[in-house]
Design goal:
Number of helices: 6
Mean pLDDT: 97
Distance between the termini: 21 Å
Structural class: alpha/beta
Number of strands: 9
Order of helices and strands: EHEHEHEHEHEEHEE
CATH topology of the largest domain: Rossmann fold
Strand content: 25-35%
Length: 199
């Protein structure tokens, strides 16, 4: 059975969607570790309520490389096959990415490469785009720049606010993240150039 490690910083709604997919058998894996850099992260509570191993490794005042080494050590001790970022509000170091090459996934609330970084939904509205969405991608040391696994489009409505657009995008995030994890864990993909081709 493949083992997933989840990293989160907040409410963990994508983590919950992944956990639901694991429980329903849509993802053939087990969640081996849920790790947060914030002691107050709601996702940790949810993990414990579900009986999943949850640990906080606080990041405050810890240099990035040193912090990443702590996380990598924890993930390796749990023999994790795939690392999934679920609202983990930290940029991973090159060292972290090298520890799990093409084995770290992230979900981002825009159609990358448009609107990387924070407040993607606000950026989309400010630019007046008619379609936004979300992207599951492999993580590399560049911000939101790794090869794209899956995307889903979400129309932008005339009266949208960052909150209303975020809510509609989030529903698609919950759907495609689990799909992408299942594809990656099953090995039904390959890289051509910087494109992920799903078999």
């Amino acid at each position: 059975m493949k083992r997933i490690g989840i990293l989160l910083s907040g409410r963990g709604s994508n983590f919950e969607a992944i956990a639901d997919s694991v429980a329903a058998g849509r993802i053939e894996a087990e969640i081996a570790a849920v790790i947060s850099n914030r002691p107050t992260a709601r996702g940790l509570e949810i993990a414990r309520e579900r009986g999943l191993p949850a640990v906080c490794i606080p990041s405050k005042d810890v240099p990035r490389e040193e912090y990443d080494r702590l996380i990598v050590a924890e993930l390796k001790s749990q023999q994790v096959d795939l690392v999934c970022l679920a609202g983990f509000m930290r940029l991973l170091s090159a060292e972290f990415c090298q520890a799990f090459p093409m084995r770290i996934l992230n979900i981002h609330p825009s159609l990358l490469p448009a609107f990387p970084g924070l407040d993607a939904q606000k950026q989309a509205l400010e630019h007046g785009v008619k379609i936004s969405g979300c992207t599951v991608h492999f993580v590399d040391p560049q911000l939101d720049a790794g090869p794209i696994v899956l995307q889903a489009a979400v129309p932008v409505l005339e009266n949208d606010t960052p909150e209303s657009l975020s809510a509609r995008i989030l529903a698609e995030e919950h759907r495609i993240y689990s799909e992408a994890i299942a594809v990656v864990l099953a090995g039904r993909w390959r890289i051509e150039g910087r494109r992920v081709v799903v078999d």
